[in-house]
Structures are given as structure tokens and as C-alpha cells.
């Protein structure tokens, strides 16, 4: 039973007011409870078909590691509605139905990257203001997207590390490394091979049964560069 409503009455004999509670039964069918609760919980939680429950934390969806993490908010909603009939079977059924209602399969759009100051759209090269739950992104870089930002220390390091025989920077190898890092941080579909991984997988040594020579590595680098440039639409590496 749950307290649904009530009203005040005037007792003429006792000359005072008293309150009469009106009690109504709880819903017998768990479907009604699950449907109602799911409309509230969907503002904060979502279900991934492979990785479980995620919680919206303002910038992106964060995976919840607890076992049955929705049980606590479901119990809290039961308390708020004065639903006292619980039991493991009933609660598990409510939990399972709510989980089904919260499931979505549109996770991690490969064309969107979230930063602290917004969401970057790779298809338009524009930074969109804010963060949207319906983008279903599960990661956010904890720093701002700044198109004019430079990284002289990093560029100086890789240019000094990857050099030609005469000690000057080797732009071909440097570009391969920069491209690899770019494809690493850009989100991609989890059920498809990453473009740069394909390049690294198919770009083996020419003389794979013999001791590698300098020419072998030159061919290996050229294969990677060609594949990466194709993936980048023939443009340079940013």
C-alpha cells in the first residue's frame, strides 16, 4: 500500500480539524513501474549492449563499474513513490525492463571528438558549443580545443629523433609518426579496423625471409606514407 493523498475535515463535536489519508494500492504490473521510472532514469543513464551501464557526467558518458548500478536509483525512486513491495524477483524484473528501455546502439560517433570547451566535428572541422547526451560519446579530452595551439617541444623532439644519415630531420618518417598519433586519438568504430592499423598491418618488409636492409625500411616507410596519405585524402598531416 502507498499513501496517495488525503484531506482535512472539520469535526463539529470536537471542534477541530483532522486529516484523513486516502490509501491506494501499488501497481501490480511491474511494466507500469519500469515504464515510468525509465523516463526519469534516461536523463542520467544509458545502457550499452556490450559494455553495460553508462552515466552522463556533463561532458560525456562514463562507464559504471558496479554490478547492477541501476539498482540504487531504482530503490530511491521506489522510496519517493512510497512503493514498498520489493523482493528480489520483483526488483530484478523491474531492473531488467528498465535496462532494456535504456539501451542504445549509437555509441561513439567516429566524426565527433569532445574537448573541455565543446565537441569537434571532423566532417566540418568546426567546434560545436557544449556537449550533447545524444552524441553518445564515452570520452572527453580534459583540455580545450585550440586550433592555433602549437607544440614546439614535441615537434622538436621527433625531428631530432627521426633523422636522415646526415643528421637532418626526415620529414617522411616524422609525418608517419604524426599521422599514427592522429589516427590513435581520433575516435573510430569499435567493430571496424582502424585506418592506420590497416596501413601498419599490410606494410611489411620487402625481403621478409632475409635480413632487412636499409632499402627494405625505405620501402616500408613509403608503403605506410602512401596508405596514410590516402586515408587523409592526399593531404598533409596535421
Structure description:
The chain has helices at residues 30-41, 71-80, 88-102, 152-161, 171-185, 195-202, 214-231, and strands at residues 2-11, 16-24, 45-48, 52-56, 61-63, 112-115, 118-121, 126-128. It is of the alpha+beta class. Among the domains are: 30-102, no CATH class; 106-143, no CATH class; 150-201, no CATH class. Strands 3-4-5 form a three-stranded antiparallel β-sheet. Strands 6-7-8 form a three-stranded antiparallel β-sheet, with no helix packed on it. A two-stranded antiparallel sheet has the order 1-2. α6 runs antiparallel to α7 (214-231). It is elongated, with a radius of gyration of 29 Å. The chain starts with a strand and ends in a 7-residue tail after the last helix. Mean pLDDT is 77; it is low at 196-224 and 231-238.
Question: Which labels suit this protein?
Answer:
7 helices, disordered C terminus, three-stranded antiparallel β-sheet, elongated, 8 strands, 238 residues, 18% strand, alpha+beta, single chain
Could you say which structural class the secondary elements and strand pairing correspond to? alpha+beta
- For the record, give the distance between the C-alpha atoms at the N and C termini, rounded to a whole number: 64 Å
Strand order of the largest sheet: 3-4-5
Low-confidence stretches: 196-224, 231-238
Specify the biggest β-sheet: 3 strands, antiparallel
How helix-rich are the residues, as a percent range? 25-40%
Backbone shape: elongated
Oligomer type: single chain
Please tally the β strands and state the result. 8
From the alpha-carbon coordinates, what is the Rg to the nearest angstrom? Answer: 29 Å
What fraction of the residues are assigned to beta strands by DSSP?
15-25%
Number of helices: 7
Mean pLDDT comes to: 77
- Output the helix-strand order: EEHEEEHHEEEHHHH
Amino acid at each position: 500500500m502507498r499513501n496517495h493523498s488525503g484531506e482535512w475535515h472539520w469535526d463539529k463535536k470536537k471542534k477541530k480539524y483532522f486529516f484523513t489519508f486516502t490509501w491506494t494500492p501499488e501497481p501490480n504490473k511491474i511494466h507500469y513501474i519500469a515504464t515510468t521510472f525509465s523516463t526519469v532514469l534516461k536523463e542520467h543513464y544509458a545502457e550499452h549492449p556490450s559494455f553495460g551501464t553508462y552515466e552522463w557526467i556533463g561532458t560525456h558518458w562514463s562507464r559504471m563499474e558496479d554490478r547492477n548500478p541501476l539498482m540504487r536509483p531504482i530503490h530511491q525512486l521506489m522510496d519517493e513513490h512510497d512503493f514498498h513491495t520489493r523482493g528480489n524477483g520483483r526488483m530484478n524484473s523491474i531492473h531488467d525492463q528498465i535496462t532494456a528501455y535504456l539501451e542504445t546502439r549509437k555509441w561513439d560517433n567516429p566524426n565527433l571528438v569532445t574537448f573541455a570547451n565543446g565537441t569537434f566535428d571532423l566532417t566540418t572541422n568546426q567546434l560545436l558549443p557544449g556537449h550533447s547526451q545524444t552524441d553518445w560519446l564515452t570520452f572527453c579530452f580534459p583540455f580545450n580545443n585550440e586550433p592555433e595551439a602549437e607544440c614546439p617541444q614535441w615537434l622538436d623532439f621527433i625531428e631530432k629523433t627521426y633523422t636522415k644519415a646526415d643528421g637532418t630531420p626526415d620529414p617522411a618518417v616524422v609525418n608517419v609518426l604524426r599521422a599514427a598519433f592522429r589516427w590513435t586519438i581520433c575516435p573510430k568504430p569499435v567493430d571496424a579496423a582502424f585506418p592506420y592499423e590497416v596501413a601498419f598491418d599490410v606494410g611489411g618488409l620487402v625481403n621478409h625471409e632475409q635480413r632487412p636492409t636499409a632499402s627494405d625500411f625505405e620501402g616500408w616507410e613509403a608503403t605506410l606514407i602512401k596508405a596514410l596519405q590516402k586515408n587523409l585524402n592526399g593531404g598533409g598531416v596535421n
